[in-house]
Write a structure and sequence with these properties.
Structural class: mainly beta
Radius of gyration: 17 Å
Strand content: 25-35%
Largest sheet: 6 strands, antiparallel
Shape: globular
Distance between the termini: 22 Å
Number of strands: 13
Length: 243
């Protein structure tokens, strides 16, 4: 599933078009900034905002992180972008953002996943890229309780996937990264398109257990790339030692 990259200002207009073309699932909330409850196999809309790390905190106070839906952040006036996704609940998905049309380092280099308003949930800011290093593979877990989103969190493997691989650098003992100068959009040979392996945990509004996270735990971090033929030229297939 590829992302739609939008400025904050363009988000509302895009959602109007999205509602018209959406499939007939039972969740008819299409904005990432509105509350909803879900059941298995519904679509669920959430966003990932890209900006400088300090832009996700109220008045640059590192102890008060707000949702990108909160107007007090003023992301629309900052150097930021938003990617919108609508995966099917409790299916393992691979979300992609094409590096040929988007460079995270140009928008502050950090990302936050978010959804909801009164019941706003947001992840911690995750480093993606700067002029030196780029992280291209992540695992994001959406956690629910009785169908209401409670949390979004990045699941790291402590660089186990690239241990001993000279093509990668382990950042902060948690993320496998490559040098940004090796990326195609910087004149290198590697496709640094961003890939996010998505899974669900908790219960839906009927208290049915969401199982996809338990399935992901049994897979290696990069294993899903091999299942998608249209990603043969991604980072992990170019560096086939990762598998």
């Amino acid at each position: 599933m590829a992302a739609r990259i939008l400025s904050i200002v363009a988000l509302t207009l895009w959602l109007l078009g999205f509602m018209a073309e959406s499939s007939s699932d039972n969740n008819h909330v299409y904005s990432p900034c509105k509350d909803t409850t879900i059941q298995r196999s519904d679509g669920f809309t959430f966003g990932i905002a890209y900006a400088a790390r300090t832009n996700f905190f109220y008045n640059s106070n590192s102890s008060v992180q707000l949702s990108p839906c909160d107007k007090r952040l003023s992301l629309s006036s900052a150097n930021s972008q938003v990617a919108i996704f609508r995966p099917k609940v409790d299916e393992i998905s691979l979300l992609t953002i094409n590096a040929s049309s988007f460079s995270p380092e140009s928008y502050g280099g950090y990302m936050v996943a978010f959804a909801g308003s009164k019941y706003a949930a947001r992840s911690l800011p995750a480093f993606v890229a700067n002029s030196t290093f780029s992280v291209t593979s992540f695992t994001l877990v959406l956690e629910y309780k009785k169908g209401r989103l409670q949390n979004l969190y990045w699941k790291r493997d402590g660089c186990a996937s690239c241990k001993g691989k000279t093509s990668f650098v382990c950042l902060n003992n948690q993320d496998c990264a490559i040098r940004t100068s090796n990326c195609k959009n910087q004149g290198g040979s590697v496709d640094c398109s961003l890939g996010i392996q998505l899974a669900f945990s908790g219960t839906d509004k009927h208290e049915s257990v969401l199982n996809s996270w338990y399935e992901v735990k049994n897979l290696r971090q990069y294993s899903l790339y091999g299942l998608y033929s249209n990603l043969k030229d991604s980072l992990t297939s170019q560096y086939n030692k990762v598998f």
